[in-house]
Amino acid sequence: MSHSLLFLNDLSQKEKVKEIESLNNSELNEFIINTVKLCKPKSVYISIGDKDDKEYVKKKAIETEEEIVLKTEGHTIHFDHPLDQARAKDDTFILSSSPIPYVNTKSENEIDIYKLFNGCMVGREMYIGFFSLGPRNSPFQILAVQITDSPYVLHSENILYRNAFEDFYKNSSFLKFIHSKGNLDIKNRRIIIDRENNTVYSINTTYAGNSVGLKKLALRLTITKSVKEGWLSEHMAIIGFEGKKGKHYFTASFPSGSGKTSTSMLGRLVSDDLAFIREFNGKALAVNPEIGVFGIIQGINQRDDPIIWKVLHTPGEVIFSNVLMTEDKSVYWEGSEVEKPYSGINYEGYWSKESGKPASHPNARFTTPITAFENLDENYDNPNGVEIEGIIFGVKDYSLSPPVIEAFSWNHGIITIGASMESARTAAVIGKSDEYEFNPMAILDFMPVSLGIYLKNYIAFGRKLTKTPKIFGFNYFLKDEKGFLNKKEDKKVWIRWAIERVESNLDALLTPIGFIPKYDDLEKLFLETLNKEYKKEEYEKQFTIKLRKYLEKVDRIKLIYSQISDTPTEVIEELEKQKDRLLKY
Ligand code: SPV
Ligand code: MN
């Protein structure tokens, strides 16, 4: 046997080594052998994902102090390095022999994987996990193997993904993730995406967005795969909304920190972050690659977020990260609207109220199974997916985009709303918050291919559909001199309007940028949904189209896409049509 794992017997559980051997997956054996040889761990723990394995991995996370046990049963807390609190864009590279606009690339000879990873696990245990992105026994399924020396990473994955050891039988192909804490030398933090070999390497980081391979690292590989195969791998929630004529599933793409999670809580939850969307019989069907939630915790309070609040205050699996831990082993985070403790421990060490510093990091998170949410949708694990009838692209935009608009068509929506997104920067990315950023489909940070190729695939996908989902632009953040123009709860009304439009119950007003609600309809929806008056002057402030500013935006976006050599002609045409409409209005 050329790829025998038997040499592992001294390092690992013999029975499990045999089980892997019996899968007869030579690519898998080779991957494990090569990674063990490269990283040189002291021992190897093979997790096939049963109850014992899950308990073992969690126990190790606690023993190694990557997690600390909290007061509430099942809850733990994890701290990342102060400089490792968010996605590390500048340290994340797509391996590519030529540069790609808007994508951080490095060529193979600029990166020495061997040097980075050689012996990185000396003295430590290596963990191997086997997962499925998407439901098992499903045409959407993509397999993935995680190798890591961090039990916290594997513990997180046991919560966030479906264990699927048995599915690796014979030569099923899979995505490969190698992560090591290294020596947590943040200067040498590197995340390297090797598209050709379906492998991601990540070292000197523990923040889940950089280390939990199956989340945003896998997204780079699945986008690459999707554009080759003609489907969509998206940074979108999937939500079922009840209408007058039944339930309608929407996907929703918002840059993190712009309302995606709160929107997900207003309907039946299928996914809060990611979606695989494929065409079957002319319909767009979607599944959640994940079965857990890695959500932002800042601002979560009992009044506005009752469902999440309950999940975070009930015994069961929760990993808190980068919140404050108090002496009695409970947690506190900013914006929770409970009384601030006097002192505690956070990611920087000892914290006291007197310091005046925030108690928790703005990108502090919680990791929980999706089944903990009481608004879980019955189809959350349906191998056939759910039919998507609406797509929401949301931005955090203080001045321009109205609270809700509807596109004229698939291409119009994809191009002038989705691919034209500009949003205030989030705390989920290292750097200054609140600067406006071009962020098409809220996915630019994860883009592994040229935007031209990505959009070409989107346009072609739309053509395959017999009934394309309606496309909406949302913005919960409009402001004037006096502050926000909308209350948090107003989003229920924008969603209601979108549902009514999907059901063709309401007319709309034609503007150069898309359809907007009629005042009378909103007045009625505000009353019905929130029992609230909606004044004409509010409507006018929120829905008057700022022609000059929109013209500037079209020019900005057109400039971006005209500088990308493989931009499909449809993109420029659609932007020019938008410009014409704005000029003629
Ligand atoms: C997000 O911020 O969109 C996340 C967390 O889902 S991260 O994995 O860091 O991107
Ligand atoms: Mn996300």
TrEMBL record:
Catalyzed chemical reaction(s): oxaloacetate + GTP = phosphoenolpyruvate + GDP + CO2
Protein's gene: pckG
UniProt binding sites for substrate: R87, Y207, A208, G209, S256, N363, A364, R365
Role description: Catalyzes the conversion of oxaloacetate (OAA) to phosphoenolpyruvate (PEP), the rate-limiting step in the metabolic pathway that produces glucose from lactate and other precursors derived from the citric acid cycle.
Residues of the Phosphoenolpyruvate carboxykinase C-terminal P-loop domain: 231-581
EC nos: 4.1.1.32
A GO term from the CC aspect: cytosol
The Phosphoenolpyruvate carboxykinase GTP-utilising N-terminal domain, residue ranges: 30-226
Protein name: Phosphoenolpyruvate carboxykinase [GTP]
Statement: the UniProt record of this protein carries the keyword Signal: no
Pathway entry: Carbohydrate biosynthesis; gluconeogenesis
Cofactor binding notes: Binds 1 Mn(2+) ion per subunit.
Keywords: Cytoplasm, Decarboxylase, Gluconeogenesis, GTP-binding, Kinase, Lyase, Manganese, Metal-binding, Nucleotide-binding, Pyruvate, Transferase
One Gene Ontology MF term: GTP binding
Binding positions (GTP): G257, S258, G259, K260, T261, S262, R365
Signal peptide: none
Binding site for Mn(2+): K216, H235, D273
Cofactor: Mn(2+)
Entry annotation: catalytic residues: S258
Similarity comment: family membership: Belongs to the phosphoenolpyruvate carboxykinase [GTP] family.
Origin superkingdom: Archaea
Compartment list: Cytoplasm
EC category: lyase
Keyword match Cytoplasm: yes
GO biological process: cellular response to glucose stimulus; gluconeogenesis; glycerol biosynthetic process from pyruvate; oxaloacetate metabolic process; propionate catabolic process; response to lipid; response to starvation
